[in-house]
Amino acid sequence: MAPLPSLRTINRIVQREGLTHRRTGRYEPSGKKYPQLPHERVNQVHQTDYVGPCYLHGPVRFYSLNSVDLATGRCAVTPVLAKAGQHTIDAIWSHWNRLGIPEHQQVDNEPVFYGSRRHPRGMGSLIRLCLAQGVEPWFIPMAEPWRNGVVEKFNDHFRGGFLRRIVMEGADELGPQSLRFEQKHNSRYRYSKLKGKTPLAVFQQSRDLIRFPDSDAAPSYPLPKPEAGRYHVVRFIRSDALLDVFGEQFSLPAEAVYEYVIATIDVARQKLVVNIDQLPVAEYDYRLR
27: buried, middle or exposed (CB in 10 Å: 19+, 13-18, 0-12)? Predict the structure, then answer.
């Protein structure tokens, strides 16, 4: 048996191979393709997220629902005093009235967006609202907030440019001040990814058709159960080969292990179809409640 190399020799080899630097940034599974949504057209994808709880001077506590259109960088900012039910419906609806209705609405896995882990097939308010308007909701992988990276970065801008700078004395100022911040961002903020143009300038130069809600008033909670449409859950499958859809688990074939999958719920067919890179790997009956 050959003698083991000395620690000095091992250190020299490790340094030569560039293995002495600590990894920085978020973890990305090696060689795993993430199913990123294309977003070349106006309102092809909106990323949406809640910020908060936030506080004004005194006892006023609120949240801000923020949306960003990925193609133009236009934002919509709506303060709410609570994150449930009608508040979220009203906020999303107001975003659509200002930005237009998206093709895809991408969010994280907060229960306010999908419903409840006790009733994973119940289709929460956001899912029902989207499907009624022909929008496909997308839920990013759990514990991977960077998959909503555009709105997450915007949230930092919102915290620094709004929460830490704007002085408000009461809740009645929240709406006007939020709208003022939104309009300032869309008309003045310049993005390098937009070649130095403002979100509003890019939007005005676009020839994409924009669809708006047919009324200013949002639908009332509770919303009716949809009979058609699709929504999607993106997950990274680990060694147990289990797919988690809002608390309900499904066993997947071995080929899905250590891969990103898209679980698509087809409401009309009452089916859950699992795809890897657009190829189906599993299908289940999925009776919605």
Answer: exposed
Two tokens at 162?
A: 């709004």
Is residue 86 a contact partner of residue 215, using CB atoms and an 8 Å limit? Answer: no
Produce one character per residue of 183-218: b if its CB has 16 or more CB atoms within 10 Å, e if not.
Answer: eebbeebeeeeeeebbbbbbbeeeeeeeeeeeeeeb
Q: How far apart are CA 288 and CA 285, in angstroms?
A: 10
- pLDDT, tens digit, for every residue of 202-225? 999 999 999 999 999 999 999 999
**Whole-number pLDDT of residue 164:** 84
| CB contact at 8 A, 268 and 230 | no
Q: State the helix-helix crossing angle for 86-99 and 125-132, rounded to 10 degrees.
A: 40
Could you read off the pLDDT of 109-168 as tens digits, one per residue?
999 999 999 999 999 999 999 999 999 999 999 999 999 999 999 999 999 988 888 878
Q: Quote helix, strand, coil % in the chain, to nearest 5.
A: 30, 25, 45
Amino acid at 91: A
Q: Is the pLDDT of residue 6 over 90?
A: no
Residue 48 CA neighbour count, 13 Å, CB half: 32
Extract the tokens encoding 12.
């020299």
- Length reported for the chain: 289
Tokens of 152: 């997450």
3-state secondary structure of 95: helix
Cis ω on the peptide bond leading into residue 3 (within 30° of 0)? Answer: no
By the 8 A CB rule, do 177 and 144 touch? no
